[in-house]
């Protein structure tokens, strides 16, 4: 039993006339009749009979017609699904990314992904964490790589990495004498805060207010390169994710200290998507590939090789 035979049978049932059906299908009446006859032989039952030159469905024909229609409907649905699946490997993936996450996307990973899916284009846009979340919710972005934790419960999140919080300060700062830092130790200090640490900044300032501490933010920046000159010029304490502070730990001019674990201050990056939204196949593939790449790099300990 072939698709064409089912199609010819259903089309004939719409018109109940071989000649008219053959004309509509752009085949000869003989070809149509032969196809119906072959289908009847395969089924072992007659589908039509003639009554005074009128074409009439047999009892079996009436039984078989809705089944043939269902089979054709399933075929068309499957064909459309396959076509959509093919299209979903193509097109644009829109990704919003906060400044501190730009090194999370590895060039080798992108090259391999683009080679595997050459008809897919990835558009990365650097933006603030808040703008990124709004873009994902408004569907102007397919994905976002933002700051952990996300407060908005309407977003689905996948944690990509977490880090403790470190303080970078001039070696002459008295805080260097401490092994770990408590929030209370920052009383009277002026801070330089990376813009993606707004959750940490908020927690620090709220705690400082509760404890009556004199603490203020002197400078905010999305560029870590501004930390060193600003730290010395303003004599400030810079707050940074621990994983970004490697270069400063070996500097003669600066020293790093970590917050005490009791302060429970942490930072991280996470993947953001809308909940209960069927993601396009190309987006699913990108997410799975990115998570796999991050895990492999984590095992090689080069996930944040700045």
From TrEMBL:
Q: Transcription among the record's keywords? A: yes
Instruction: Write down the PROSITE patterns for this protein, in alphabetical order.
Output: HTH_LYSR (PS50931)
Spell out the molecular function terms from Gene Ontology.
DNA binding; DNA-binding transcription factor activity
Q: Name one GO cellular component term.
A: cytosol
What InterPro entries does this protein map onto?
HTH-type_LysR_regulators, LysR_HTH_N, LysR_subst-bd, WH-like_DNA-bd_sf, WH_DNA-bd_sf
Q: Please report the stretch or stretches of sequence annotated as the HTH lysR-type domain.
A: 1-58
Query: What Gene3D superfamilies does the record tag this protein with?
Result: 3.40.190.290, Winged helix-like DNA-binding domain superfamily/Winged helix DNA-binding domain
Show the CDD domains listed in the entry. Answer: PBP2_LTTR_substrate
Q: Tell me the keywords, alphabetical order.
A: DNA-binding, Transcription, Transcription regulation
Where is the signal peptide, in residue numbers? none
Q: Does the keyword Glycosyltransferase apply?
A: no
* Family under the similarity heading: Belongs to the LysR transcriptional regulatory family.
The name on file for this protein is: HTH-type transcriptional regulator HdfR
